[in-house]
Specification:
This protein has about 500 residues and is an alpha/beta fold. Helices cover about 15% and strands about 35% of the residues.
């Protein structure tokens, strides 16, 4: 048999019996399975890595946001520092201090941590410009090796003091503090400010300028005879017969209310006028503070009226009249009812600073100022009014409830950026009210004298005036407006792209 015939026979036998095919088939099947499994594993790993990157990116942006918010809080808290220095930096012991700009024209970098992330922010110098805005904050957040950068731009709402030339105005020094809102040559005081919103119902009669960063809602027969400012992208909504009187304008814009802590005396808890309210015990040796009962009270004093030293509460009822002549008081609450009166004495400048509800042990939603019935709060001065400054709370709601029906006019300043102000009844009010939100209902009327200017510590202005230049020699002296504190209101937020070069501005590619 030839070799060819032998090979043909063997191949035919393999074809018929399929011996030896199991191993190759198994190998090919195993290779294919491993390929599919590997693809699945690689895909899973890629998804997990992508999710990790997404999570790190979101966390990094959150950390950058936190850095920007911390920068804003510090800018507002140290507004007085920025009146004298363009920058702030972290000094010894972690205390912020005034500083100058660095070589690149920006303030020194400030760093910190939020959870397991880190942030670094830089601020443009106060008093300069950042494009079309007055201040910029660039914050970079880093989480798990991923960094993101954001920019927040602000416009200025500074507090001014007007210095008149010698011999002008009242007094011998020629100095006058002004808290008006100055825009070019016009003066427009916002007498009613609700940071997050204002709502007017019933027959509310408002005869001052009003402003908010939120919406303004007016319904019923509510009238607004004053300029109106609502927040950016918000609106002034009028329903039923509500209206704005002719001759006044509606504008859009955001402003920040200076926090009470920025102008409250740092030692108010230990250096205050509370002693003037204390009942003298007449014991030997005397235990009462010097100056006890200095504030006149028409009722019978005891351990709780008009002053409870334990709860730091002022309580007036029936026909009580309390005349206060001190400077700054440190209280938790003031309650007026019946026909009671709280009067600021002649020649006095009285300010009541309200501690936080948490420190006072008050419940959520408690009213730190309550006035019901025919109560009256007034001043014996035509230009100065008693001021009520509330720290409020960022974690629990706090309120001011004024529901008077007195035929006389209440005169006061109520200011609490973290407090909701509720006004009802038939009372007439004169002064300034500024809170987190403001609700006015009933037949209340809110007005001001044309010459009245609110306290300088709470009034934002959009531009700081300067002494006029180029006056001829021998001309009339001009007024000079100086800045006593600088506050800034956020205008826009943007996420930056790329990483700026070593020679680029911190907000490059933003």
């Amino acid at each position: 048999m030839s070799l060819i015939s032998l090979l043909r026979g063997r191949l035919g036998l393999l074809i018929r019996e399929e011996q030896g095919m199991a191993l190759p088939v198994a190998l090919f099947a195993m290779i294919a399975g491993m390929a599919l499994a590997s693809a699945a594993v690689v895909s899973t790993v890629n998804v997990q890595q992508g999710e990790h990157r997404d999570s790190s990116t979101k966390s990094a942006i959150a950390v950058a946001d936190a850095g920007a918010n911390i920068a804003r809080t510090r800018i507002n808290r140290y507004a007085v520092v920025l009146a004298d220095h363009p920058c702030m930096r972290m000094g010894a012991g972690g205390v912020l201090e005034g500083a100058e700009a660095e070589a690149d024209g920006w303030c020194p970098a400030v760093t910190g941590t939020v959870g397991s992330g880190t942030y670094e922010y830089r601020v443009s110098p106060a008093g300069s410009t950042c494009g079309e805005y007055r201040l910029c904050v660039v914050s970079t957040g880093t989480m798990s090796g991923t960094s993101r950068r954001i920019e927040v731009a602000y416009n200025e709402s500074a507090v001014q003091k007007t210095i008149k030339p010698e011999g002008e105005g009242e007094g011998t020094g020629g100095e006058e503090e002004s808290g008006s809102t100055t825009e070019g040559e016009s003066i427009a005081v916002e007498g009613l400010i609700g940071q997050d919103g204002i709502e007017l119902t019933g027959n509310a009669d408002v005869r001052v300028g009003i402003g908010t960063n939120g919406d303004i809602k007016a319904s019923g027969n509510a009238d607004v005879c004053g300029d109106v400012r609502h927040g950016v992208g918000k609106k002034f909504e009028k329903t039923s017969n509500a209206k704005q009187c002719p001759g006044y304008v509606e504008t859009e814009g955001n402003k920040s209310l200076p926090p009470v802590s920025s102008f409250m005396p740092s030692d108010i808890a230990t250096n205050n006028s509370d002693y003037r309210l204390v009942k003298c015990t007449k014991t030997k040796p005397a235990k009462e503070p010097e100056g006890c009962e200095s504030d006149a009270y028409s009722g019978v004093r005891n351990s709780t009226k008009p002053w409870n030293a334990t709860s730091r509460a002022i309580t007036l009822d029936a026909n009580d009249t309390l005349t206060v002549n001190g400077g700054d008081y440190w209280v938790c609450s003031i309650s007026l009812s019946g026909n009671s009166q709280l009067i600021m004495g002649s020649g006095a400048q009285v300010r009541f600073f309200f501690d936080t509800p948490e420190h006072c042990g008050l419940s959520s939603g408690a009213a730190q100022i309550s006035a019901t019935g025919n109560t009256r709060i007034a001043s014996t001065s035509k230009t100065v009014m008693p001021a009520f400054y509330l720290l409020g709370s960022t974690t629990m709601p706090t309120n001011v409830n004024v529901a008077g029906n007195a035929s006389t006019t209440d005169e006061f300043v109520i200011y609490g950026p973290n407090t909701t102000i509720n006004i009802s009844g038939n009372g007439t009010y004169k002064g300034v009210m500024a809170g987190k939100q403001i609700y006015i209902s009933g037949n209340g009327r809110f007005e001001n004298d044309a010459a009245y200017r609110p306290p300088v510590e709470i009034t934002p202005i959009t531009e700081v005036g300067k002494e006029s230049e180029g006056e001829p020699e021998g001309g009339e002296p001009s007024e000079e407006t100086i800045t006593t504190a600088r506050y800034f209101s956020p205008q826009f937020y943007i996420e930056c792209t790329g990483v700026p070069s070593a020679f680029a501005a911190p907000n490059a590619n933003c």
